[in-house]
Structures are given as structure tokens and as C-alpha cells.
Design brief:
One of its GO terms (molecular function) is metal ion binding. Keywords: Metal-binding, Zinc. Belongs to the yippee family. This is Protein yippee-like. The chain is built from no helices and 6 strands. By secondary structure, it is mostly beta strands. The chain has a 6-stranded antiparallel sheet with strand order 1-2-6-5-4-3, with no helix packed on it.
Length: 99
């Protein structure tokens, strides 16, 4: 049940084909987090973010994990994954990014 300003988002333990930006503190719906944007290595677009640190104890399970925004991820043929079910962890809470 993760959300971004563009809609649904998914929490992953590991992602591929991305690079990380600089760390910054962001106030999200679940509190203050240190995050870095993650960028597609193919097109350079921001596709989500990585949780570097959670400042509230109850949110520490997110540390080192990645959020991919459903709206920003395309399939190998360029189509969007609008109706696909992912095997992502759907932990409690939701966050918005303030990009």
C-alpha cells in the first residue's frame, strides 16, 4: 500500500538497471526519511527512490530498500504495467515523494 504523488508504488529489496542520486532528507507521510532518487540507466528518468535511513524507529524496516513508482516504469516493449500484479513487499504505510 505504498503511494507516490503519481499513484501506486512498490517496495523492493533489490532493483536493477538504476543508479542512485544524492542523499537528501524528505518529510513523507510516515515521517522524516533520508532518501536518494533512483534513475533508469537506459533513459535517465527518475523511477523512484531508495530509503537510506528512517528517522523513526517504526519505519526502519524500509532502510536500504527501494520504491518504484508504477506510473514511471515501462515494460520491455515500452508499454506500461498498468494491470500487472507485482511480487513486491506491500508493507504498512504509504509515502509520497515531493519531486
Amino acid at each position: 500500500n505504498f503511494h507516490s504523488k503519481h499513484g501506486k508504488a512498490y517496495l523492493f529489496n533489490r532493483v536493477v538497471n538504476v543508479t542512485s542520486g544524492i542523499n537528501e532528507d524528505r518529510m513523507m507521510m510516515t515521517g522524516l526519511h533520508t532518501v536518494s532518487d533512483i534513475f533508469c540507466v537506459g533513459c535517465g528518468s527518475i523511477v523512484g527512490w531508495k530509503y537510506e535511513a528512517a528517522h523513526e524507529k517504526s519505519q526502519r524496516y524500509k532502510e536500504g530498500k527501494f520504491i518504484l513508482e508504477r506510473f514511471k516504469v515501462s515494460g520491455p516493449d515500452g508499454s506500461h504495467y498498468w494491470g500487472v500484479t507485482h511480487d513486491a513487499h506491500h508493507g504498512g504505510g504509504s509515502d509520497t515523494d515531493d519531486l
